[in-house]
Specification:
CATH architecture of the largest domain: Alpha Horseshoe
Strand content: under 5%
Number of domains: 2
Number of strands: 0
Largest sheet: none
Radius of gyration: 19 Å
CATH superfamily of the largest domain: Tetratricopeptide repeat domain
Number of helices: 5
Shape: globular
CATH topology of the largest domain: Serine Threonine Protein Phosphatase 5, Tetratricopeptide repeat
CATH class of the largest domain: Mainly Alpha
Order of helices and strands: HHHHH
Helix content: over 70%
Length: 110
Amino acid sequence: MYAHGLGVKQDYAEAMILLRKSVEQGSTCGQHILGEMYEYGRGVDRDIPQAIEWYSKAAEKGDEDARKRMEKLGTFITASTLQVLDILTVIVQFTESKVHILSGNVIRKK
């Protein structure tokens, strides 16, 4: 409703609040719309991995349009794959922080 301005003034901030509540209650439609919000950067920074995550959740519940949107984005990532990607991201961030620490130590030694 607020995301698309149906019957009310379009308000992405209000839409995000209501969508978060709806997905907490298991709304497939809410998951799908959150995917759109992240895919197109409506009220949030554009974030394709986040869009894929929400589309994936909706698709796993049978939302065919969400599956098609994921195909449009070029992939179909399941929740378990996203967890692996999250773990890899943490590893990369940890490794980068160690590199910064090491380079800081090298600079101080000069």
